[in-house]
Amino acid sequence: MQSLIVTEGDSVTLHTGVTELHKGELTWHFIADKSLIALINRAYEAFSTMDGPNGRFRDRLKLDNNTGSLTIINIRSEHAGVYEAQIFSDNTSSKRFKVTVYARLPVPVIIRNYSQCSSSSSSTSHYNCSVLCSVVNVSAVSLSWYKGNSVLSSISVSDLSISLSLPLEVEYQDINTYSCVINNTISNQNTHLDINTHCQPCPDDLPVFNIAFLCAAASVLIVVIVVMCCKKWRKTGQERKSSAKCDPKTRTVVRSLMKVLQDVLQTKSDKTNAVYENVPKNKSR
Predict the structure, then answer these.
(1) Domain boundary at 57, 78, 102, which?
(2) Domain Ig-like: where (predicted)?
């Protein structure tokens, strides 16, 4: 028995090994349901293909009228199984083929693993990025992370059609090449990890930057208002005495407000710096 392995959507030809069928009869059977799917009869010049039970082979079979070889077009998983060609001539002979059909592999998808983002009790994500590589509805495959040509981690599934995910943690400044690969017996698909694209700062860290920016802007705004107020009222000596800037009580209030803003900025400074560290820098080439 000859074994053939193909991918869904491809075509496969089952060769009889005959150069030319001059006389006699040839039949093709799909053993799973013992159905006749193709026939050549030289005596009656009959050449035909059949749809099989439930139209399984409708518009998918092509018969070579000279050699009797059978081609299955746009093959699907339902066409996997054993096929038998029988030749009835001066000598009766038969030939069997076992056809295995694998699903076409999807391209792995890499996303940021936001569940591992930084928290108040963890600082590792300030320096490391966690990503997930995923594929859906797959069977009889392996999913692996590669660093260059070396396998870092791998997970496999047998015949069940399920979804797979495989995590990876890298440093923001890592310049190594990483790729996620899905493969089966006959083919593979891969996606390369782009740290600049896949490792954006965690969403929870972004408001820290916004708060710091707003506090700084508010500080500048207060200073501008005080200066404008003083300029407006510095027209006479009497008015200057009552101006906002020269009034001791007003100065005390302004100083207190500035102190509060400075405290807020100081409290957020560490987290803000961490966010800047999280933003990947361009890799050296």
Answers:
(1) 102
(2) 108-196
Amino acid letter, 170: V
In a domain, 60, yes or no: yes
Element (H, E) at 44: none
- pTM for the predicted model, two decimal places: 0.61
Provide the pLDDT confidence category of residue 200 given band limits of 50, 70 and 90: confident
β-bridge pairing 188-192 and 178-183: antiparallel
Domain boundary among the residues 163, 198, 233 is at: 198
284 in a structural domain: no
Three-state DSSP state, 224: helix
Question: Which 3-state string (H, E, C) describes 115-173?
Answer: HHCCECCECHHHCEEEEEEEEEEECCEEEEEEECCEEEEEEEECCCCEEEEEEEEEECC
Which H or E element spans position 278? Answer: helix 248-278
Residue with tokens 């999807």: 106
Please give the single-letter amino acid code of residue 7: T
Cα gap 68→39, rounded to integer Å? 8
pLDDT digits (tens, 9 = 90+) for 16-46: 998 888 888 999 999 999 999 999 998 888 9
pLDDT beyond 50 at 285: no
In a domain, 250, yes or no: yes
Same domain as 114, residue 194: yes
